[in-house]
Amino acid sequence: MDSIYWQSFKTFFKIGAFTLGGGYAMIPIIEAEVVDKHKWVSKEEFLDLIAVAQSCPGVFAANISIFIGYKLRGVKGAVSTCLGAVLPSFLIILIIAMFFHRFAENAIVQSIFRGIRPAVVALIAVPTFNLAKSARISLANCWIPIGGALAIWALGVSPILIVLAAGIGGYLYGTFVKPTEN
After folding, report:
1. I want to staple 85 with a disulfide (CB 3.0 to 4.6 A). Which of 12, 41, 71, 130 is the partner?
2. What mean pLDDT is predicted for residues 57-71?
């Protein structure tokens, strides 16, 4: 029987090895494994962990794996899941770096990369829409993520300020507005 450390390492290694498009593209796969299959965290806890992982500096996939591992088995669990999540990328990048100079200028390779870019955008867009649905983003409150994204993109506002403003706004709403709603 596998220990939880080995099982969580294998789970995150598989996620890290077979997910293209970065951390946000991993969200549905992590959710399927961690919430649905293994039931290590609930759906609500997973949404909270995503919010915290996005708010912390560093690589999203590493952050979320650390939080889930820590919830499972403390520091040892966090080390296990984090190693599982980042080791595949590290090994793949190491191999590519060793040979990339040989084929970087190849017209076929450059064409392949140009074709992959739009697919990666789609891989990021789908979990974004699913996350919005899970977070109960509706027409009434869709202005918050849209306004935040526009402020970052068009005005150059720091994402840290957006997260802080949203947190303060959520606190104020929950403290002063929501209790009076029926």
Report:
1. 12
2. 91
